[in-house]
Amino acid sequence: MTSRLSNATIAKLPDAIATPRYDRGTVAPGIVHLGVGAFHRAHQAAYVDACLADGEADWGIVGVSLRSPDTRDALSPQDGLYALAVRDSAGEQLQVVGSILSLLVAPEDPSAVLAALTAPRIRIVTLTITEKAYLRAADGTLDEAHPDIVHDLANPGSPKTAQGFLAEALARRRAAGTPPFTVLCCDNLPANGATLHRLLVEFAKLRDVRLARQGDADLARQGDADLAHHIAHEVAFPSSMVDRIVPATTDADRARIANELGLDDAWPVMTEPFRQWVIEDRFPTGRPAWERFGVTMVEDVRPFEDMKLRLLNGAHSGIAYLGLLSGHATVDRAFADPAIRQFVDALWAEAIPTLPQDAGLDTTAYTAELGERFSNTALAHRAAQIANDGSQKLPQRIIASALECLEAGTELVHLTLVVAAWIAACAARGKTLPEGHFTDPLDAALTTLLGQQPPANETVTAVFELAGFAKDHAERQTLIELVAVHLVHLRREGPVLAFAALGIDSR
C-alpha cells in the first residue's frame, strides 16, 4: 500500500520533484482564501509558495471552502500539501506546493472561519468563488431575496455567503480595534474589486438597517453601527486579473501522479506553463512581494482585465459551446477543427476594437500566445467544464463586446453566435449531449423554456429576460435579433449551417 503525501513523507519524494524550500513549521498565516479550489491551488497558492521560499514567512494561507468539504477531506491528511503538475507537449513537471497551512469548511464550523478572518495577523482575504457565488440579481445588484442572503442578515454570527463572512469579520475587527484586511477578488468579474466592494456595501447597508430596527445595542457596540460606511471608506478592494488554464483532475491524473511521486496524492492539480496575475497595488496593511515572481502590480487593472475577459474567456466560451455542438470533448480538439479555429480568429477581430486603444496592449502577441495555449494537447481541458454557468459568464465575456460593437456600428456576427451556441448547447443536454453535461444557475427555468422550443426570436427574448442580458440597453432588441438568426441556423443543421452563414466551410 502506497503512503500518502504529507509532512512526514515528503522527504521520500524523488529528487527531480520540486518541494517547498522553506520550513513549513515556521510559516504563519497572513492570508485567508475563500473558495479553495483547483484554480486557486494552481495560481495564487503557487505564487505565495514562491514568496515563502524567498523568506516571507508570514504569508501562509488558510483555505476556506464555502460549500463542499471535498478539498479539506483530500488535503488535510496531507497537511495541505499537493502536487502541481505543469503540462505541455514537451512533458510534465511536478512541484509540491506547501503554502496552504490549514483548511476549513464553512458550513461545518462558521465560527472557526470567523476566528480565522478576525485574527490580527490576517491582512489579506482573497476569493475565487466563481461568478455565481456573488449572488447578483439580473441588474447586477445584490440579490436581496436569495435565501442565503436572507439567512445571513438574520444570523450574522453564522453566515453562509462570502458577503456574510466578510461583513461579520470586518465588524468584529472594527470592534476590536484591529485594522481591516484587504479584500482581493480573483474571479472573472469586470472590475472585480469594485464589484465586490459595491455588493458588500449593499449587504452591509441591509444589515445596518436590520440592526437599527432591532435596536440591538449589544451588536452595535460590537462594531455594527454604520458598518456600510466603514466598508465603503476604510476597506481596500483592489481589482485583479488572473489567468491560468486549470482543467479538472481525473482519476487517471491521480494514478499517474502517484506513480511519479511514489506517494498517493488525493487531489493533485493539472495546469499549463503560462500564468499571469495583474493586481492594483492598494494594500494598506502590507502584502507579499509578488512582483518578484512575475505578478504585475499596476494602478489600474481594467485594460488587462478587458483583454483577458474578451479575448481568452470569450474565445473559451465560443470554443466550448461550438465544440460541444460539433462533437469535440476538449478545447485542443475543438481548436484543431479548422472551422472553429477560423471562427475564433474572426471573433478576436470583432472583440479587439472594443479594447482600450491607448493602454499599450499587444493584442497580436496575446492572441498568438492564446493560440498556442488552446492547442496544448497535454491538458485535455474539457469543453463541458468551461461551459458551466454561461448565464453568469457571457455578460462580461461576450455581451459587453457585442454592445460596444453595436454602439460603434462595427460588425459583430461572430460574437452573437457564441450566445446562440450557448442556448443551443443548453437545449441539447439530454438529447445530443448527455443530460447534466454542464450546469447553469438558471437551469430550472432554461429547461422549461427550451423544452417548449418556441420560435427562435421568442426563445432568445425569453433567455435575455431570464439572464438579464443587456438589460435596459438601447441596442438590446438588435442584439436579440442577431442572436436569433444564428439560433435558427443551429436548430436546422447545427454548426455546419451557422458557420456557412459566416462564410466558414466546415464540411
From TrEMBL:
Residues 30-291 form the Mannitol dehydrogenase N-terminal domain. GO terms for biological process: mannitol metabolic process. Keywords: NAD, Oxidoreductase. PROSITE patterns: MANNITOL_DHGENASE (PS00974). Pfam families: Mannitol_dh, Mannitol_dh_C. Residues 300-485 form the Mannitol dehydrogenase C-terminal domain. The keyword Iron-sulfur does not apply. Gene3D superfamilies: N-(1-d-carboxylethyl)-l-norvaline Dehydrogenase, domain 2, NAD(P)-binding Rossmann-like Domain. InterPro entries: 6-PGluconate_DH-like_C_sf (IPR008927), 6PGD_dom2 (IPR013328), Mannitol_DH (IPR000669), Mannitol_DH/Oxidoreductase (IPR050988), Mannitol_DH_C (IPR013118), Mannitol_DH_CS (IPR023027), Mannitol_DH_N (IPR013131), NAD(P)-bd_dom_sf (IPR036291). The keyword Oxidoreductase applies. GO terms for molecular function: oxidoreductase activity, acting on the CH-OH group of donors, NAD or NADP as acceptor. This is Mannitol dehydrogenase family protein. It comes from Mesorhizobium tamadayense.
